[in-house]
Design goal:
It is built from two helices and no strands. It is an all-alpha fold and about 70 residues long. It has one domain. Helix 1 packs antiparallel against helix 2.
């Protein structure tokens, strides 16, 4: 049960990070970023989505009892 709660908390934190990176007020527009900043932002968003999906899958499959 505790694993399911931890997985959900991690998934929500990752979703919050991704949403902030996409819609945050302090973010530069894509045109104003250098190539390095664009690559770093793509990596962060992709990583956040992967962590979010992993947390959801862990909550679903690890929380089931036999």
């Amino acid at each position: 049960m505790i694993i399911r709660i931890v997985a959900i908390v991690i998934a929500l934190a990752a979703l919050g990070m991704v949403l902030y990176l996409i819609f945050g007020k302090n973010q530069k527009s894509w045109d104003q970023m250098t190539e390095d900043e664009q690559r770093r932002k793509k990596t962060l968003v992709t990583g956040g989505i992967i962590v979010f999906l992993s947390g959801l899958l862990a909550a679903i499959f690890l929380g089931k009892k036999k």
